[in-house]
Amino acid sequence: MKKLLFTGLLLTAALTAQAQKYMRIWQGEESTRVALQDISYQDGGASFTAGGTTYSTSQVDSITIVKHITVTFDGNTASVDLGIASPADITYTINGANVVMNNTNETEEMEFELKGTSNSGSFTYNGTYKCKIHLNGLNLTSTSGAALDIQDGKRIDLILTDGTENTLADAASGVQKAALYCKGHLEVSGSGNLNVTGNTRHAIATNEYMLIKKNTGTITVSKAVSDAMHIEQYFQMNGGTVNLSGMGGDGIQAELKNDPTEELNGQILIKGGSINIDVTADDTKGIKSDDLITISGGTFVINAKGAGSKGISAGTNMIINEDDAATTMTIAATGGVYEDPETDDTSKCMGIKVTKDLTISAGTITITNTGRKSKGIKVDGIYYAKGGTVTANVDAAATRK
Description:
Largest sheet: 36 strands, mixed
Strand content: over 45%
């Protein structure tokens, strides 16, 4: 029966290939987007080939046809290819190279591909259902607001097309929160690279969580007037590389939402990948959470150079282990003492600052503090030293092994 169903699905896909460009092949919760071309059957329908890859019918759960819309930027202009015949749920406007896309579909996940170059362009997306946005060699600088403004409170898959370099920068003034803003849940994947410049406030900001998946390439922020990544609810990183520098604020900040029932509210979870941060502004943090920080894998190189700066600052507790991958952390606290000009309060530069308890079970943590009155690790609560290799000066209210 499954063979017959898939044969029918593939026949439908082939018949609609002129109107649609892609389909998704689902295996469990993971899917692969393939071009609708050269579809063929083998072994009496037991397997099929699509997009140059052979799939076993028994290992495929479902096939969906992709509604694919392409937006191409070209200097001071932009164009839209809907890919399907007059979709009633999609409307758009183009003003120069500024594109506003409106999607009223609430049942089908659509995919948008953004490509091309403009030094005076932007893309704004309004929708109420989850969608996928592919960046395929996009180089976009806005002169009026955010470069990429996603006004959709659902899950947004931001896919960095393999082998591509993508660059976003916002205007130097305006009311936008970031060069790349997402109202919903931002999940980043794809082995391409993304470079973001925040000329007004943050480089990247979300109103819900941000997840960087294992297969993600490199995300680089070389400038942000405020935070490089300002994330509400929680930030999770499973892989990829994040390079942050040139911030006037924090590197990665996870902020508490007003609703205390939000999942992982105010937390940071890092399970793998590589994070490189230069903290040069005074009284700022490389990684900052309003709540718990859990590190269970990854490579960290953080330089806290600003006066009173912190390499990592946990709003409550912090846990370091190797439950997901090897953990290697190198932090240099070279900044001096910060004196608040309004309150005369002082703040010392630190490698790690934990408001409550710190638990280290595994990993290699090396922290040097050479700045005037700087500290290696400062724990206001209890330091649980359960394992790992820690090379640092530790100042804790109490230590338990």
